Amino acid sequence: MLMNYRWSQNWRVFAYVNALVCLPGFLFFQFFIHESPRWLITMGKFEETKEVLRRQFTTSKQLYLMSDEFHDVLQTEHAISKQQNSKRGQYSYYHLFCTWRLMLTTVVLAFSYCATSIVNYGIMFNMEKLSGSIYWNSVWTGLMRYACNLGFGYADLKFTRIGRKFIHTSGLLVILASLAFVIISYIFHINHELKEEIRIAILLASSMTSQVYIADGIVGNELFPTPVRNLGYSFLQLWNRVGVVLSPFVFYLADFWLALPFCVMLFLSSIDMFSFEVLLPETKGKPLVEHMPPRSDWIIKGKIESPQAAEPLV
């Protein structure tokens, strides 16, 4: 507590401390993170692209992919990207719904972002209602998120069977179990006796939302075709913000019953887990979707002008 007082006794000192904590991340990003190979190909920087891909393939033990024809492949992809970029303005949010598969992907991920934000920010905006210090509750939430992220990150690299669905579903299972515990304690009127256990359960539910966010973001990038990937990400973030806006209002339901907000969160998280697990494919280890689906697969043909989908390389 004394250290916290020394660091936050005025905003100037607190801002300096925050800047100092962020400095290692800035240095790491500046000197150890390379540009995206896709962007380098688009800009025609073939030598730098090959160097970046060589490091990636060496790490993943796929160096054999860099054959003698690799430079020709890069040039072909550069030509395709130039053709797509020249017509990029013709893509719109409509194209996120142009086929049944894209529509399903967009709807499921948008709902997942919205439901997760309702759980996460609903708890955060009502943190003062939990037992204990609001500051220590925030600290424990951050530590649990940090530990979970490191654990799942290691498991994703170490075990091939642990994919995007496992991370998403396991995080939601913890959320569902935590929320169910809180609801049961209210049903049997033992919430006062179990106030510390309820605090831990709610903080754990809030912590595990970070895993759901990560899985949603990765799956969205891996399922949306390259020409509409940025559009897809922005659309999902829109529904993320919708969840943020709705989250405070969920706790107004506590006027009818104290456990009702948690029942709503439990319901939304259950739909999220079921739809993600059943309706979306596992994307770990699968190549990115580089091109839009052919016009023959579109739901409404001939209505919206769009660039012709480039043929993928064989």
UniProtKB/TrEMBL annotation:
<dbReference type="GO" id="GO:0016020">
    <property type="term" value="C:membrane"/>
</dbReference>
<protein>
    <recommendedName>
        <fullName>Major facilitator superfamily (MFS) profile domain-containing protein</fullName>
    </recommendedName>
</protein>
<dbReference type="InterPro" id="IPR036259">
    <property type="entry name" value="MFS_trans_sf"/>
</dbReference>
<keyword id="KW-1133">Transmembrane helix</keyword>
<keyword id="KW-0812">Transmembrane</keyword>
<feature type="transmembrane region" description="Helical">
    <location>
        <begin position="166"/>
        <end position="188"/>
    </location>
</feature>
<feature type="transmembrane region" description="Helical">
    <location>
        <begin position="12"/>
        <end position="33"/>
    </location>
</feature>
<dbReference type="InterPro" id="IPR005828">
    <property type="entry name" value="MFS_sugar_transport-like"/>
</dbReference>
<dbReference type="Pfam" id="PF00083">
    <property type="entry name" value="Sugar_tr"/>
</dbReference>
<feature type="transmembrane region" description="Helical">
    <location>
        <begin position="244"/>
        <end position="268"/>
    </location>
</feature>
<dbReference type="GO" id="GO:0022857">
    <property type="term" value="F:transmembrane transporter activity"/>
</dbReference>
<feature type="transmembrane region" description="Helical">
    <location>
        <begin position="102"/>
        <end position="122"/>
    </location>
</feature>
<keyword id="KW-0472">Membrane</keyword>
